[in-house]
Every structure is written in structure tokens, then in C-alpha cells.
Amino acid sequence: MKIVTKFTQILQDKIIGPMKTLERRIALSLQEANVKLRPANSNGLWCHLLLPAALVTYSCFDSVPTLYKITSCISVGLFFHSVLFIVFLSTSSTVLKEPVYAGCVASGFISTILLFHPFLFYCLFFSDLGFSLTVSISSTCLFAAMLRLFIVKFDKTFTLGEAMITAQAVVLFFIMSVIKFFFKMQSDDKEIEFIGVIVYTILSTVGLIVTVLYFLTDSWRTLRTLAYIVASAAVFVLLILHAVLGRNCVITILNYVFVERDRYKLFTFWLFLVLVAVCVLMVRTRLAVKASTVTRKTFHILASLVFLSGILYDVYLMTLAAGIGLGVLIFVEALRKSGIEPISSALQSAFLVYCDEKDCGLFAMTPLYLYVGLAFPLLLVPNRPDRELELLSGVLSIGVGDTAASWFGSRFGFNKWSDSNRTMEGTTFNILSQIGTVYALQLFELLDNKSALLRTVFAATVSGFVEAKTDQVDNLVLPLVTMIALQATWILL
Predict the structure, then answer these.
(1) % residues pLDDT > 70 (the chain)
(2) Which of 154, 292, 343, 401 could cross-link to 430 by cystine, CB 3.0-4.6 Å?
(3) Measuring CA to CA, which residue among 120, 83, 93 is closest to residue 29?
């Protein structure tokens, strides 16, 4: 008992106490800069570690492509920048008032040193200092600008930690895409290259559509204008795909999606789930009855079934569908904010019914986080044939565990954790549901992964306790936490 008390005291003096002091100083700086973050008990300062940790671990202990190693090194540079940003923000609000500051340049040089080393060993063609400086400094400055934009301009949309993860993800994906395009870093997997062409084309087109919608004047915000924009975007996509994939690009894609390996069966199942989700959404919106937390978890289950079936039966088709689905989700959110009637009003009505207390900012981030959380592993996890369990990180943590905790805790939970509205009973069911899901998958021979059950016990326990204590958006942080926990067990075993 004395040992536990002493450990608790050390934890309070060395970690919890200083962190609370840091949080108070940052709160004062934010107030001085008149910045309004998403209301939460903490800023989630620990979140900026998650994405770099996952990337670096795979780069160090797995056989990954050169582009993956480069992306990992850039993520380390962004991590150092995040640390410096937190330090600067705790001392002054100047870091939020100036678009460029000394910390950006300093962290850029740190990432340059880290980036230059792997180029010498893994990619001699790019091992010149000029390229390293260009990539690292540009990525860091882009991250600084985007982080400042998220915090200053998007009122009540992010906490500090959520803004850091989101900015890191966007910058890393953008830089990776630019390097891949300009330096022809092709994967040995031709199917992945084929999927990448389609996904990059769709996402870039959606980006152009969002940009056009943003700059439209009020008089042009009509259904006719939207029809012209969508038609132009469709022509643009066809031209790009025709140039890259050849004249039979449409037939090739349709054959890939519906004919090869009897994929039409899986696609039909997904279409059925989408129709169920749309019907539920329409009925609930028409009733105009505010959805409870448990009701919202219905979409967690439906989305998780899509990703679970795709990862287990056809991870390539799932990757393609995930990329296109992300573009559709961003497009729908852009339509909701576009002011084009009656589409915007209809989407806003659905949003008001299903939004939760964390969707109090400019954008509906919770559904986007849910989708990205489920899809994150498809982009981060290498060597997929041996990593099915890690590919299911999002499904297990938020599709199964978080949903189970919400349902069970709201009905049978009585004992709440300190400084949290989550219950101990809900956390227990969270952990057990993840373990039970993996056991069932193994029982029906759907998952063949070494020590899967033992690894899940550890990962589920970690994610369960994080879910119980954190006030950051679960959909964003839990998949990364689960993935890192599974990485730790994979390395040890």
C-alpha cells in the first residue's frame, strides 16, 4: 500500500502537476489571443505524439518502402515542431498572432538532419542537402500555417491536440503525394499503384470542387451552378484517368470493382449497409428527434461492418472504397456549408439531429473522424498480409469497443471514473467486447494472426482506459492508440 501511495505521489509531482501548470499557461495565452478551442477539460497535448510514433515504429521494425521512411522522418520533424509550439504557446500568445516564427525554422532544421540520414542509406538519388532542406522546411512551414489556421480561424472545432493530429495527417499525406508524383516513387505492388491513381484523382478533384464552392458569390450558389461544377469535375476525372490508365479506363475500373474475384458480392453487401444508413438517417431527420449517444453508435456499427468485411475479405477493394468514400464525405460536408438550397438545409437538418456536443465548431468533425479512424490503418500499416489485426485497429477500438462501452455504460454503469463521465462497467465491457470479437473471428477462421488474442488483451486494455479518461474525440485518437499498443506487442512477441 505504501508503494502504491508513493508511486501516486511521484506521478502527481513529476507529471500531473507540471502538465496542469502547462495547461493553465496555454489557456491564458489562448485567452489573450482571443482563440476559442473546442470546449474540453484538457487540450490533449499528448496527441501530437501518436501519428509520428506509429510511423516511426513501423519504419524501424518492419520492411517498408523508401517513401514510407521519408514520411516517417518528416513526421518526426512535425513532432519537434509541435513540442516547440506547445512551449512557445505556454509562454506567449505571439505564436498564434504571427504566421511565421523562429520555432518553425528551428524545427525545420531538426527534421532536415533526421531526413538527410535515411536518404544516404536508402535513396542515394535524393541524398542531396538541397532536397532535404526543401522537403523538411516546406513541410514544417506548411504544418505551422495549417495548425495556426485550424486553431485561430476554426472556432470551437478542435482542441489543441486534435488540431495537431489533423494538421500532421493532412501535411504528411500531401507531402507524400507530391514526392510520389514528382520523383516517380512507384510501389512494387501494381494493384496498389492502380488504386492510388484513382484515389488521388478523386481526392484532388474534390479539393478543386471545395475550392470553387468556397469562392462562389451568393448569386452563383444555385443548383444549376452546382450541376455545372459536378459535370466539369466528372469530365476532369475522366480526362485524368484516360491519360493515366488508357482509353478503356472506365471499363477497367468497373471490371476491377464488380467482376474480378466476384467482388460484386462484397460490393452488394456494402451497398445494402449504405442504404440502411441512409434510410435510418432520413427517418430520424423527418421525425426531428435528437439522437442519443447510443443511437449515433448505430452508424459506428454499420461503418465498422463495411471495414471489417473489406479488410478480412478484400483489403485492396476496401482501400479503393475508403479513398473514394473519404472524398464523398468531404464533398457532402462542403455542400452542407455551401449555402446551396435546398441541399444545404436538408443536410443541416440531418446534422442537427445526429450531432453531439463535440460538434460545436464550424465543421462536422465527428463523422469525419469516425471514417478516418476506421481507414487510418489502411494507409499506415505496411505488409498487409501479416498485419490483419493492426488493420482492424479502428474497427476494434471505435466500432466495437467504444460502441459497446457507450451502450453498456449508459444502461448498466453506476461507478464513474474520477474526473470523467465514463463508467467502470462501460470500460470493462469495452475491453471484453474487443477480446470477444477477435476470439469470434479466430473461432470462425476469419482471422489467422499469431498471438492475436494475447495481443488484443493488451491493446484493448490500453484503449479502454484511454477511452475512459480522455476528453479528446475518441474516433480520432483511439485507433492510433490501439495501433501503437498492437505494435508494441508485435515487437515484443
Answers:
(1) 88
(2) 401
(3) 93
Same domain, yes or no: 191 and 179 = no
165, 158 contact by CB (below 8 A) = no
* Each residue's pLDDT tens digit, 244-260: 998 899 999 999 998 88
For residue 150, the enclosing domain spans 1-185
How far apart are the C-alpha atoms of 255 and 300, rounded to whole Å?
30
Q: What is the pLDDT of residue 450?
A: 76
Return the exposure string of 127-147: e unless at least 16 CB atoms fall within 10 Å of the residue's CB, then b: eeeebbbebbbebbbbbbebb
Quick check: 357 pLDDT over 80?
no
The alpha carbon of residue 305 and the mean position of all alpha carbons in its chain are separated, in whole angstroms, by 18
Same domain, 443 and 486: yes
For the packed helices 129-152 and 66-91, what is the interaxial angle rounded to 10 degrees?
A: 50
In a domain, 374, yes or no: no
Residue 224 C-alpha cell reads as 444549376
Residue 416: Cβ within 10 Å count: 15
Could you give the CA distance from residue 38 to residue 155 in angstroms, rounded to a whole number? 7
Separation between Cα atoms, residue 391 and residue 386, nearest integer Å:
10
pLDDT in tens, 374-409: 999 999 998 767 788 999 999 999 999 999 998 898
- Select from 407, 405, 451 the least CA-distant residue to 424: 405
Based on the fold, state whether residues 344 and 203 are members of the same structural domain.
yes
Side-chain half-sphere of 207: how many Cα atoms within 13 Å? 8
If asked whether residues 36 and 155 sit together in one domain, one would say yes
- Cis bond upstream, residue 99 (ω within 30): no
Is 477 part of any domain? yes
Residue 493's nearest CA partner among 450, 458, 459, 436 is 450
